[in-house]
């Protein structure tokens, strides 16, 4: 699994408006329905109201490549321009699970 954290930052609530339009337009749901998509969820950092975090997880690089080749990427680019958003990206590859000694810190 590959997880990509995308931080969208704008001014005057633009990032939040972008995420709201992604959801309201159905574009986010279309991405969630793509083969290989495991997670596509928006969050807002409490300390930064001008940023929206997208956590986007895929089964593998091939799924990401297929996603990047879809017409939806053009729609996304237009919305990013509309809201004048800038991005910061972090990428993570799944490790093989939570070590036993770390499980003591997890409350279920």
TrEMBL record:
Record bears the keyword Transcription: no
Q: What GO CC terms are in its UniProt record?
A: ribosome
Q: Which domain of life is it from?
A: Bacteria
List residues of the ABM domain: 2-93
Which keywords describe this protein according to UniProt? Ribonucleoprotein, Ribosomal protein
One Pfam family, please name it: ABM
> Which protein, by its recorded name, is this?
30S ribosomal protein S9
- Provide the species name: Lactobacillus pasteurii DSM 23907 = CRBIP 24.76
